[in-house]
Automatic annotation (TrEMBL), chain A:
Catalysed reaction equations from the record: L-proline(in) + Na(+)(in) = L-proline(out) + Na(+)(out)
Organism (species): Salsuginibacillus halophilus
Record CDD domains: SLC5sbd
Cellular localisation: Cell membrane
Keywords from the named record: Cell membrane, Ion transport, Membrane, Sodium, Sodium transport, Symport, Transmembrane, Transmembrane helix, Transport
Entry similarity comment: Belongs to the sodium:solute symporter (SSF) (TC 2.A.21) family.
Main localisation: membrane
A Pfam family hit: SSF
Protein's UniProt name: Sodium/pantothenate symporter
UniProtKB/TrEMBL annotation, chain B:
Species per Swiss-Prot/TrEMBL record: Salsuginibacillus halophilus
Transmembrane stretches, start-end: 6-27
Top-rank taxon: Bacteria
Name the UniProt record assigns to this protein: Uncharacterized protein
Keywords: Membrane, Transmembrane, Transmembrane helix
UniProt keyword annotation of Transmembrane present: yes
């Protein structure tokens, strides 16, 4: 059965990729789906990208072993806040500046090749390193479950990715993400609650009698509070500037789509994670003693829910792998084709040629990903330690400084990105090799972030922005998504535009109120069942 | 009451509260004044038209 589900999921991706490819007429369609993204599509791609295999495998396993609160209560909270910042602050501001990719921002803001090249290198290493390691981890679990050899699984995954990334570009990724989100939602809405129901809230609460501290933030390992707070900060840094989330905003049709997606998508972040973590706790009641804890949810799908639902659960797991991988890889391809080849090499390409280059880049990325995932060179494990968080130290200070500080300039950007990234790697390597001991509960990411900010401030204060940077800052401050959207609506005439504005305004307020109510109901229910 | 469990679900709820607060702030700050101004302009235009019709 598992093999059948695997092939069905892949087939859906390939078929959808083929269908969506028909809508790709020009480079804007390919890179930002012609900026036609509706609320459903943006929420779909945002939520599907957010839910990665890490939630369903690694963190679910940790929740099973140590307790559901260990990561969820503070670490994941940081990720949810980071997602909100990525969408409503960084993504929204960059879209107002007409950025089609995140490196666009560095190019527009500083107009400096060195800044653009450093930003691009950080992006490619960050996305590929993080994406490939996730693909390897998830591929190993799926290979065990389905009986398909690991190499064959990676080749099939890559081929499916290739079809809809190369043919459909961002359009393909957004549409497949949205469709796949429904299978992922089935895990949170049906399958995980079934596991929780079978385990029983009373039995789950009683776990703290056999496993002391199971229902505490420190968990069974009695992790100190400082560790949890450090996780909270690290996850904020990690998520708020990651291109996988920020770039989800770029295909949005208008500002109201972004605002509605911020409310709904950010609600789904805890909704999809916390219920899975609680179900992982339920698995401790139903099937204690699982040694390979990464497999906890897979075993839950296979052994503790009806076959058909278990199949959907596995499909959801595969969808979570594919949706995160597709976003990471499509963005890497964009970076190579658009930001490196077209912009940095100053290639003036026709629409058709630009589209072709974009597709070649996707094929190139797919081949590289496939080769690295199968060969698993030891370097990829080393890179992956730093890849996920590199945007927090490498990009975040420069992006926020660039958006908010008039004095910000290319020298400060270069200094901050290089010093931040180098400090991150250096401090972490020294600490891991026990050459230095970090202060208790201070993560190397936090130290390097502080160093990157300090470097940025010192260099910016001791240098001057050039005229272009000053002019662009002034121009940037006059741009906003609300202004763009109001202008866009009023193009249809004042009366019609005003009516549309009022309608969207009301709709956004209603959605906000409804989701506050849903959040209160869902989390209130779980609190009453588990908190007393 | 288990305070640690409370923190988990409070933070889950707070996430939505924060996103809604940010969105409502943007709506009120960036959209409401424009909507009111456009409504006023439309009313003025309508009263001007009526005035012309009467005269």
């Amino acid at each position: 059965m598992t093999q059948t589900i695997f092939f069905i999921v892949l087939a859906i991706y390939v078929v959808l990729g083929g269908i969506v490819a028909r809508y790709i007429k020009n480079r804007d369609d390919f890179y930002v789906m012609g900026e036609r993204g509706s609320t459903v599509l943006i929420v779909g791609t945002l939520s599907a990208t957010y839910l990665s295999a890490v939630t369903l495998l690694g963190i679910a396993g940790q929740s099973y072993a140590e307790g559901p609160l260990v990561i969820a209560a503070l670490g994941s909270f940081g990720a949810w806040i980071g997602t909100l910042i990525a969408v409503i602050y960084i993504g929204r501001k960059m879209k107002a500046l007409d950025c089609k990719t995140m490196p666009d921002f560095f190019e527009k803001r500083f107009n400096n090749k060195t800044v653009s090249i450093i930003a691009l290198i950080i992006m490619i290493i960050g996305l590929l390193g993080y994406g490939v390691i996730q693909l390897i981890g998830a591929g190993l679990v799926l290979s065990e479950v389905t009986g398909i050899s690991f190499s064959m699984m990676i080749i099939l995954f890559t081929l499916a990715l290739l079809v809809f990334c190369a043919l459909g570009g961002m359009y393909g990724v957004v549409v497949t993400d949205t469709i796949m989100l429904f299978t992922m939602m089935a895990i949170s809405v049906v399958i995980a609650p079934l596991i929780i129901g079978q385990a029983g809230f009373a039995e789950m609460k009683a776990l703290s009698e056999t496993i002391p501290f199971y229902w505490t933030i420190g968990g069974a390992e009695e992790r100190p509070l400082g560790w949890s707070i450090s996780q909270f900060l690290v996850w904020i840094l990690f998520f708020s500037c990651t291109p996988a989330l920020v770039s989800r905003v770029f295909p949005a049709k208008n500002d109201f789509v972004i605002l509605k997606s911020a409310v709904i998508g950010v609600f789904f972040a805890p909704f999809m994670q916390v219920i899975v973590f609680i179900a992982a706790g339920g698995m401790q009641v139903l099937q204690p003693g699982i040694e390979n804890t990464d497999n906890v949810m897979v075993l839950g799908f296979l052994n503790h829910v009806p076959d058909a639902l278990g199949g959907i659960g596995l499909a959801g797991l595969m969808a979570s792998i594919m949706s995160t991988a597709s976003t990471l890889f499509v963005l890497t391809g964009f970076a190579l084709a658009r930001d490196l080849y077209e912009h940095l090499f100053d290639k003036k390409l026709s629409e058709q040629k630009s589209l072709r280059v974009g597709r070649y880049a996707q094929i190139f990325v797919a081949a590289i990903v496939c080769a690295i995932a199968i060969a698993q060179p030891s370097a990829i494990y080393w890179i992956s330690i730093y890849a996920g968080a590199i945007f927090g130290v490498g990009w975040l200070p420069t992006v926020v400084g660039g958006l908010e500080w008039r004095r910000m300039n290319s020298k400060a950007a270069i200094g901050s990105m290089l010093i931040g990234t180098a400090t991150f790697i250096l401090v972490d390597e020294l600490a891991r090799n026990e050459i230095i001991t970090l202060p208790v509960h201070i993560d190397s990411l936090m130290i390097s972030f502080a160093v990157a900010v300090l470097a940025l401030v010192v260099i910016a204060l001791s240098t001057q922005p050039n005229q272009y940077e000053l002019d662009y800052y002034d121009f940037m401050k006059q741009q906003s998504m609300s202004k763009n959207t109001i202008e866009q609506f009023l193009q249809e005439g004042r009366s019609k535009g005003l009516a549309k504005l009022k309608k969207e305004y009301k709709q956004t307020v209603v959605i906000s109120i409804v989701f506050i109510g849903i959040a209160a109901l869902v989390w209130g229910y779980f609190f009453v069942m588990l908190g007393f | 009451m288990n305070t640690d469990v409370f923190i988990l679900f409070f933070n889950s709820f707070l996430t939505t509260v924060l996103s809604v607060a940010a969105v409502v702030w943007i709506l009120r700050k960036q959209y409401l004044p424009v909507i009111k101004q456009l409504e006023q302009e439309e009313q003025e235009d309508m009263s001007d038209e009526k005035h012309h019709e009467h005269s």
